[in-house]
Amino acid sequence: MKRLILAAFAALAAASPAAAETRIFSYDPVSPDARRLTGTGLTFLFETRMLGGGKVRKIMATAVPASAEVKSVGVGALGKGAPVGPGDIYEIDAEKAQGKVYVRAFCPGSTRVWLAVGTLRHGRDLKVQVLGDDPAGGPARACAEMEFAYRGEWRLGNGTRPDPFEDTFDSNLRF
Predict the structure, then answer these.
(1) Residue 80: what pLDDT?
(2) Helix (H) or strand (E) holding 154
(3) Alpha-carbon distance 70 to 20, whole Å?
(4) What is the gyration radius of the CA atoms in the chain, in angstroms?
(5) 3 state DSSP class of 43
(6) Residue 59 in 3-state DSSP?
(7) Bridge partners, 61 (sequence order)
(8) Least confident residue range of 23-27, 79-83, 94-98
(9) How many CB atoms lie within 10 A of CB 98?
């Protein structure tokens, strides 16, 4: 019995990378911070996880061609006592794409910015907390709390990496 359970677990673990897929969800701003910082909203490119949600790879302005790559980090990157809400923590890569623009816009005065992103689920609204490094050297500080309403999912074509500035948006997914 023990071998059967171990074999099933090994098969599940081996299949999980193949089960992951790239998806893109767009969100409309709801909170004042979200409207002020994103204009018409944000779009998230992410890899699905076996148990739900996703690992964010890129954030994009919904209405204009501006994007930033993000990397997953642990809560320890923020420093002891940082005000972190629920969700996975990502650091905006200021060296790629328009990352520096996002850093300056989301948290003026900071050189590093992190996003605590809630769970990405089809049809569900999203909360994102923005944190920036403290110029005085303390733990990360809260810069903004953004709330978004789910807008829809981008329809992906031939299995290539999606580009929302070229791919078709499926507006029928909004309920």
Answers:
(1) 74
(2) strand 141-154
(3) 18
(4) 17
(5) strand
(6) strand
(7) 42
(8) 79-83
(9) 18
Tokens, residue 93? 């890569």
pLDDT tens digit sequence for 25-40: 999 999 999 999 999 9
Q: What is the pLDDT averaged over residues 48-77?
A: 85
Report the sign of the C-alpha dihedral through residues 164, 169, 170, 173, in that order.
Answer: positive
User: Buried b vs exposed e over 133-151: b needs ≥16 C-beta within 10 Å?
Assistant: bbeeeeebbebbbbbbebb
Contact present, 48 and 32 (Cβ < 8 Å): no
Q: Which residues pair with 101 in a beta bridge?
A: none
- The three-state secondary structure class of 77 is helix
Question: What's the burial of 120, exposed, middle or buried (CB within 10 Å: 0-12/13-18/19+)?
Answer: buried
Contacts within 8 Å (CB) and 24+ apart, 15-19: 16/50, 19/48, 19/50
Query: Cβ atoms within 10 A of the Cβ of 63, count?
Result: 12
Q: Which helix (H) or strand (E) holds 114?
A: strand 113-117
Q: What DSSP state is assigned to residue 124?
A: -
SS (H, E, C) 90-113: EEECCCCCCHHHHHHHHCCCCCCE
Alpha-carbon distance of 45 to 57, in angstroms, equals 6
| Cα 107-108-114 angle, rounded to 5 deg | 25
